[in-house]
Amino acid sequence: MRLPAVEVRRLYFRYDKEYVLEDVTATIWDQEYIAIIGPNGGGKSTFIRLLLGLVQPTKGEILLYNKPPLQARHLVGYLPQNVNFNLEIPLLAREVILQGRLGPKKFRFDATDYKLLAQVAKELEIDTLLDKKIANLSGGERQRVLLARALITKPKLLILDEPTAAVDINAQKRIYAILKTLKMTKIVISHDINILLEGVDRVFYLNRRLFIHENIPLKLKNNGGHFCEMELFEELKRRCDG
């Protein structure tokens, strides 16, 4: 039996008098992999902030595993688009990852934390990076370390906002290949359409209102097997207009 991971019902959100999201309704199922795409200013980041409970809806309801977002935070792993590190501080990769295990009532690491560190490092193929300074890692390596920090909390839902921004094409491919293997509900905002759409179950096109697309015609290919982004957007536009 498929269980809902995320339920969004008649969601509205506005800043001052301007609505950013209008009448958004969707169900994301447990273990589903969702891509959220859309224009800048279309409401993607606001939608994620609502899922995380960082802002509250103007109208409507959000449930994560049948709980309001603020009560479900322990079920969510999050990798934001911009993670600000002072690279002058000599933090090791293992220290950055373990930070994910800390919380309002937890100030020290224990044996369980170190066991989980070993597991997630193996899963993301970063065992050899753990004792390196975060400042000395490449962009792709650093993103995998930050992904490990999100995963070490053992989330049921993983939310990623542009996880491959500012990394090279090989690092992008490696990160998305890893994401495909993770057995959990995944929501990813990305502009890396060529790579991202190869693994997702559904595409959410968000531009104030939500359009949900299934069975995207992945046969739209050229340029050495990559998706033609213009053809894809034309297909999505045709569906929205229809």
Poorly predicted parts: 218-228
Helix content: 25-40%
In what range is the share of β-strand residues?
A: 25-35%
Total count of domains: 1
Radius of gyration: 18 Å
How would you portray this structure in words?
The protein has helices spanning about 45-50, 95-100, 110-125, 140-150, 170-180, 195, 230-240, and strands spanning about 5-15, 20-30, 35, 60-65, 75-80, 155-160, 185-190, 200-205, 210-215, 220, 225. It is α/β, with parallel strands linked by helices. It has one domain (about 5-240): Rossmann fold (3-Layer(aba) Sandwich), CATH 3.40.50.300. It has a six-stranded mixed sheet with strand order 5-6-7-3-8-9, with helices on both faces. It has a three-stranded antiparallel sheet with strand order 2-1-4, with helices on one face. Strands 10-11 form a two-stranded antiparallel sheet. Strand 1 and strand 2 form a beta hairpin. The longest helix has 13 residues, at about 110-125. It starts with a strand and ends with a helix. The model is unreliable at about 220-230 (pLDDT under 50).
Short précis:
With 242 residues, the protein is of the alpha/beta class.
How does the SSE layout of this entry go?
Blueprint: E1 4-15, E2 18-29, E3 33-37, H1 44-51, E4 59-64, E5 76-79, H2 93-98, H3 111-123, H4 139-151, E6 157-161, H5 169-181, E7 185-189, H6 193-196, E8 202-207, E9 209-213, E10 221-222, E11 226-227, H7 229-241
Parallel strand pairs: 3-7, 3-8, 5-6, 6-7
Antiparallel strand pairs: 1-2, 1-4, 8-9, 10-11
Helix pairs in contact: 4-5
